[in-house]
Amino acid sequence: MNKTLKPSAAALPLLLSLLALAGCSLAPPYTAPHLAGPDVFKEAAPEAVSAAQWKTAAPAEALARGQWWTIFGDARLTALETEALEANQNVKAAAARLRQARSLTRSAQAEQAPQIGMGVGGLRQKSSAASLGLPAGSATPITTLWRAQASASYEVDLFGRVASGVSVAQANAQQSEALFRSVLLALQADVASVYFQVRELDAEQALYARTLELREDELTLVRKRFEAGDVSELDLAHARTELAAAQAESQGIARQRANAEHALAVLLGKSPAEFDLPPTPLNRVELSIPAGLPSTLLERRPDIAAAERAMAAANARIGVAKAAFFPNLTLTGAAGFESADLGDLLKWSSRNFLLGPLTGTVLSLPIFDGGRRQADLDRARAAYEEEGANYRQSVLVAFREVEDNLAGLRILGSQTQAQQDAVSAAQRAAQLSLMQYREGLVSYHDVIDADRSVLTHQRGLVQLDGERARTVVGLIRALGGGWETPALAQR
User: Fold this and answer.
1) What CATH number is attached to the domain comprising 448?
2) What distance lies between CA 266 and its chain's CA centroid?
3) Which residue of 68, 346, 411, 432 sits 20 to 30 Å from the alpha carbon of 232, by its own alpha carbon?
4) Contacts by 429-438 with C-beta closer than 8 Å and gap 24+?
């Protein structure tokens, strides 16, 4: 006759086998996606093309990141960048999101440790006669029970559900860190771009100030000739019209300048009333930014890093969804004191303990759920494919942005030179027309047309200078810029 095993002895081999499986992750092996990129940027300078060779992209989070805006040699811009990093509200919000993500990582990691609690309470109850097996109407006593105990529970991570959850949280935290850096880079670039826009408008305002002086001088000249009877009142009316039109255009530039200054104030975390930027006309920016290797773009761009970390998190979620198909093993127990009298609660004779079935184990195995777990797994896999597509799209957009700005700088150089030649030619034509007008050889319409041409070409040149400065900023941003994590992200 075979000897019947006790439940605890029969469960021991099964328990040991399950414990040996603990921590086995069901998530697919994850490797960072490989994208075949160009050896060189299409719009890069020839000397950069000849020296460039593609290399495999590697994480570059440890690289020292500097204050890239200092290459402009503008102390005021440097001060504004520093102020924005300290006070901008979007940066503070991004830093708070980063701290939330890091806290969620610690919360996920806490599930890998036993959960221990303690409680004290009392219970007063009166059981029914039927529950005690007594005849109906029998009197039952009222009992009081005092309890003080500690409880503990621990989920054995048999199939890596908890470990995969930790991986998800860690990848999410890394994604939040990359997004935080992306916000920093966007802020730095926005401050520089708006700052150069304000200075461009200052240059246009200075141009119109000189134009107004010229228009007033011409009006004085025409008035004298009208009073001398050399010209008709029509020329005088035209001169007054041109002066008024220049004044109106100058006011329009002042309005644009005010709006740009207000936008800069908000980037600095201030209300427009608290900020004032003294007028400083923009000087031409003569900088050449090396584009480097296309592969380094995948290392430096924080938005690409964030997209890659989103893929890693989605991959780990597949492991969580797969683990739901397998048994869940939880160890539970409680120990403490239990007594009918509060005064006897802490006596040694009042001690008690409670363990779950199978020597403190609770093993649950899902059988049927109407396809819910399979749907969750399918959704996790589809989410991974979505993040993969988002990553590849972010890489393509990054390459496009670099190429756009490289082309912009290259073409702006030639365009600026051509515009400078046009300004010189227009100025010479204006001088000749004014001399001929004084001698009575041409009409005042010729003077007006020549002056308008000078103003148009000069303003176009100023706008090209501003566009070039902003394109340099755009190229630096497209290449990943540089960043240093402010202290507020560490708190």
Assistant:
1) 1.20.1600.10
2) 18
3) 432
4) 429/453, 429/454, 430/454, 434/218, 438/221
Q: Where do we find the tokens 């749907």?
A: 375
Radius of gyration of the chain (CA): 38
- Could you read off the pLDDT tens digit of each residue along the chain, which spans 491 residues? 444 434 444 445 555 554 555 556 678 888 877 776 677 777 776 654 443 343 444 444 434 356 889 889 999 999 999 999 999 999 999 999 999 999 999 988 888 888 888 888 878 887 787 777 788 778 888 888 888 888 888 887 778 888 888 999 999 999 999 999 999 999 999 999 999 999 999 999 999 999 999 889 889 988 998 888 888 889 899 889 999 999 999 999 999 999 999 999 999 999 999 999 999 999 998 877 776 667 677 778 899 999 999 999 999 999 999 988 888 777 788 888 888 777 777 778 778 877 765 545 566 777 888 899 899 999 999 999 999 999 999 999 999 999 999 999 999 999 999 999 999 999 999 999 989 988 888 888 888 889 889 999 999 999 999 999 999 999 989 988 854 444 545 54
Tell me if 317 sits within 8 A of 164, measured CB to CB: yes
Distance separating alpha carbons of residues 178 and 183, to the nearest angstrom: 9
| C-beta atoms surrounding 22 within 10 Å | 15
Whether the CA torsion 396, 399, 402, 404 is positive or negative: it is negative
| 290-300 b/e (C-beta count within 10 Å ≥ 16 → b) | ebbbbbbbbbb
Answer whether 88's CB lies under 8 Å from 267's CB.
Answer: yes
**Domain assignment of residue 148, yes or no:** no
- Measured distance CA(236)–CA(375) in Å, rounded: 83
Residue 461 domain boundaries:
37-111+160-327+376-489
The three-state secondary structure class of 9 is helix
**350 in any annotated domain:** no
The answer as to whether 337 is a domain residue is no
